[in-house]
Amino acid sequence: MTPLRLTVAVAVLGTAGLFSAPAAFAQADGTLAERLITLRGQVDELQSELDLRREEHKNRMAYLTAQLADLEANRDREQLRVSQLETDLEEMRVEISEAGVSSGSLTPFLKNQIVALREQVRTGFPFKVQERLSVLEELETQLDNGVISAQRGVNRLWAFIEDEFRISRENAIYSQSIALDGENVLVDVAKLGNVMMYFRTRDLQYGRAVQTPQGWRFERLDSAQDQERVARLFDSLRKQIRQGYFELPEALPLKGDAS
Fold this sequence. Notes:
alpha+beta, disordered N terminus
């Protein structure tokens, strides 16, 4: 009788194994389905983030394209101004040549040129305006008082105009006083030709010069990201790196600004 019992027991055990296998497969399928659902959710999230990044990149490129167009337009205006100065200089040479060397004939012409240049400096790019005006003021005063001759004055005026050409081409750091928040403040300025200018206060706050219909004004940068960008510009210019790719806060003429 004993062998019969053993056979039955084995048969029962074998039947139990057959019933447990489908349950295990079902559990594995459920785990796989959950995993697939999780992965699908992650894929959807990544796709959404990718779409967002693409849209941000598209908007960024559109902004940079518009900024580049404004920058090129402003550069063209400055080039036109330089060309006008060159034309004025050539006309001055011709007129002086035709007028002879008489101080009496040169002085009125020279003073007219000083007046015209003074107005250009006063309303133009806000780089060391008072210092440049002082040069013209001193020249006019010396002419009026007879300290220098008209011929000497013409040479001085030519040197001033040539200095204006140099200023329009330079990318460098200077110190100058600016009107900021109703006060005159001594700052460092990073000048990019006669197109854009940024400033750094002694307590390491950064800002920009902006041209409006009412003239140029200096304003601080509120964004920490913009301040970091300008700080990198100052660091590069300090290291004599004057060419390269820089992302900078816009500092181009504000159209229709009535403030």
